[in-house]
Amino acid sequence: MNRSLLIYVMAPALGILAVLQSVVAPRLAILHVRPNPMLLFVVGWTLFHGRRDGLLWGFIGGLWLDIFSGGPMGASSLALMAAAMVAGLGHRTLYRTNLLVPVFVTALSTLSYAAVYLTILALLEANFPWRAMLERLAVPEVIYNGVLMLLLTPLLNRIPERREVG
Amino acid sequence: MRDSERRFWPVADIGIRLVVLSLAALVIMALQVTGRLAIVENVVALVTSPAQISVTGLTNSVTDFVKGLREIRDLQRRNAELERVNSSLLVENLRLREVERENQRLRELLAFAEVRPGLELRGGQILAKVIGRDTNNFRSFLLIDLGSRHGIEPGMPVVTDQGLVGRISSVTERTSKVLLITDPTSTVNAILQSSRLTGAVSGRPGDNPIMDFIPQGAQFSVGEIVLTSGLGGNFPKGIPIGQVIEIRQRDFEIFQQAVIRPTVDFDRLELVMVVTNFDPLEFVPELDNPPASPATPEPGTLLEEGPPQPTEENP
User: Fold this and answer.
1) Which residues of A touch B13 (CB under 8 A)?
2) Label partner for B66 (CA 20 to 30 A): which of A6, A40, B15, B150?
3) CA-CA distance, B136 to B75, in Å (whole number)?
4) CA–CA separation, B21 vs A53, rounded Å?
5) 3-class SS of residue B262
6) In the prediction, which pLDDT does A163 show?
7) How many angstroms separate the CA of residue B85 from the nearest CA in chain A?
8) A63 within 8 A of A79, measured Cβ to Cβ
9) A118 touches chain B (CB under 8 A)
10) Is B211 helix (H, G, I), strand (E, B) or coil?
């Protein structure tokens, strides 16, 4: 698909994904921890197409998420962009074909997403229990997203890759 | 082009993109914190809330279907027993069960209104449907299908027949966000029903809320009911919050703590009630709540709009 057209398709598509994350993901919660489909999408896309696109989808997807969230607008964008930067580490065919690399990259990306998001909340809200959040919610989310990526990787491996120089 | 140049430009492109998008996100954040994004939020909520309502309805149907599948085994067993008596009654019973459950929920909500005549409950309009939850694991918010055009204002308490849910943190024209009592930034002044000890209930990440600031040496027991105390003027007095399930007492601390199991099952919330005639004395707006003057609906607005159309969930 033409790259300039892609954004017109992706922007509303990410909105739909955000609606699903708001309505459906809470029903998939395990021990109060919900999966993060938007994060998985951004990480998956970055793994297969590189950081350049991942950053853009992270920015747009984050804005959509913040519309349905009680957190500050733009916080999810910054957090998803950080996740995309980390996920870019795995954007190499050599790494990608290894099943463990996407899982490891997803775990690292989720952790960086949580770190950026919680830092923003801690900066904006006094006495925000970021450490407890990190221990009780971020770590389980790392595991949850990692397992989901493990299940998704065989499907994602069928997607043709676009190599990014650099 | 040399190899080094070929490598430099894509990296520079990513760097520029990262800086530009990060700055854009920070500008958007600043605009929201200063309340200049309200119009955009209103427009987006206007577009997205119908989608959320539809997806919520669809998700509820799928959940009910799956639940129905699980129940089939039980029903088959029961059917075999009852077949002797009257097999046709079972079919009728199945159809009526869903209606009865809905009816029961509404009767409970009505009973809540009757035992608290001090709280104005404007017919069906006060009933709000939960249309979404926070997209983030780190916050505990609900999205409901009522907004400023229905008379909803920030700070209004949100309850169910089971007890306290939270309070309105921000409103758009058609939707509102509810800060749940389980959110770590939420604090509710509370009182223990039997021992009359007061404290403050706060949410904890991924865990049951805790009642803090209970004086050392004061006697209370597991199982006590926790109610809103009305102190501070944020919530009406006497709304159930939960039940004490654990007492934490350390000699070196000034206060005792009680772990609370909320009376409301937040995972299964479908309908909530917004208390519209309670004026909170002090309400600190949330970050995403623009410091605009509270939206007061015009006198004719409610009549024109009328209550939400009767549905299975929101009659």
Assistant:
1) 52
2) A40
3) 38
4) 12
5) strand
6) 56
7) 39
8) no
9) yes
10) strand
| Distance in angstroms (rounded) separating the CA atoms of residues A76 and A116 | 9
Who's near B23: CB < 8 A, 6+ residues apart? none
**Closest residue by Cα to residue B184 from B242, B216, B139, B240:** B139
**A115 contact B CB<8A:** no
CATH number of A3-156: 1.10.1760
Comparing C-alpha atoms, which of B290, B298, B222, B292 is closest to residue B256? B222
Which chain A residue's Cα is nearest to B143?
A68
Other residues' Cβ atoms within 10 Å of the Cβ of residue B311: 10
CA-to-CA distance for B35 and B38, rounded, in angstroms? Answer: 6
pLDDT tens-digit map of B206-258:
889 999 999 888 888 899 999 998 887 888 888 899 999 999 988 888 899 99
Whether A109 contacts A86, CB under 8 Å: yes
CB B269 within 8 A of CB B156: no
- Cβ pair B209, B242 in contact under 8 A: yes
Q: Which amino acid is at B194?
A: S
Alpha helices in chain B (DSSP H): 3-33, 38-115, 299-305
> With a cut of 0.90, is the ipTM above it?
no
All residues at 6 or more sequence positions from A73 whose CB lies less than 8 Å from its CB, including other chains = A63, A66, A67, B28, B29, B31, B32, B37, B41, B288
| Chain A residues 121-160 within an 8 A CB cutoff of chain B | 121, 124-125, 128-129, 132-133, 136-138, 140-141
Average pLDDT, chain A: 86
CA dihedral of A124, A129, A131, A134, whole degrees rounded to 10: -80
For B99-251, strand residue ranges (E) read: 127-133, 141-144, 157-160, 163-171, 176-180, 187-192, 198-204, 207-215, 225-228, 240-248
In one letter, which amino acid is B221? S
CB A141 within 8 A of CB A36: yes
Among B65, B209, B105, residue whose Cα is nearest residue A27: B65
Q: Which domains does chain B have, with CATH numbers?
A: 187-266 (2.40.10.350)
Kindly state the average pLDDT of the residues B290-299.
39
